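Next comes a single protein record:
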Amino acid sequence: MIAKKLFGNYNGQDVYAYTLSDGISVTISQLGATVIELLVPDKEGNMVDVALGMTTPQDTVGPKGDYMGCVVGRCGNRIAKGKFTLDGVDYTLDCNNGPNHLHGGFEGFHKKVYDVQIEGDTLVMFATSEHLDQGYPHKVDYCVKYTVVGKTLCIQYFGESDGTTLFNPTNHTYFNLNGQQDGSILDNVLQIFADTYLEIDETLIPQAQANVAGTPFDFRTPKAIGQDIDTNHPQLANGSGYDHNFCLNGGHCAHAYSIKTGITLDCYTDMPGVQFYSGNFLGGQLGKANYPKRSGFCLETQFWPDAINHDDYRKPILKKGEKFHSQTKYVFGTK
């Protein structure tokens, strides 16, 4: 059973939210295919909202929304200077993050109002990105499918293009396993199953793959997010904390838990990387609660950032006639 309710109005259009419930409850807005609430039972059986979010469509896509819960694309993360070459043709994208392109541009997937179809217990959100949308070549028809089974949220991405283009959508939910109103994720414990990560320059563009061993980026055994976040390390200075791609060892991406609530989160994906972002640029936005710096963390499953401009990275290229499919699962529990 999927419940529907009016969320608000955006550019003169009614925007609805859909709630999927089983062992957890997830509410998704058709604007940006955005997770606006994620209720999970804690160790006492109380339902806790673990996803930061805004209360209106306008705020969701406005400056203070900071992509909270949105699907971002065509190409999630950064592309250096908004430039790339595909089939011998040079393309220039919106540069909406300093000198670089970020999360699909000024009017990316996070600002689309999706068509909705309900298939049994699955919520399907459809949209089209036209040729040269934000500078990307060729038209892409795509959809995002949300399913809740037990305590698992499954997000699937599908896409098909009429020509060669880039396609790398991801979800940008900010988690706080203490509860979205807690104000800090520094005591959330995190484990990332990756032996290497991508070092970044001052504009957060990847430069080199490096071993996590002996650095603050070693999350191979669980540790509090805040344990090393203020260490004097040039990579933490570049990211103002953690804002880095981890090069995954396999499909089990990450494990996290809250000592306060006992809530656990395991992330599984078929993508080669995950951007662990520690909410460094949150600045006291008022949504469902007040969200100061580092009050939420993201696990954005993805192709590696700026992959199209790196010969040794797996490329997010979608060709005519190919069918893109990717899946990420967020599995909740208690300990």
Notes: The chain has a mean pLDDT of 97. Residues 67 and 245 are 18 Å apart (CA to CA). The chain has one domain: 2-334. The first strand starts at residue 2 and ends at 10.
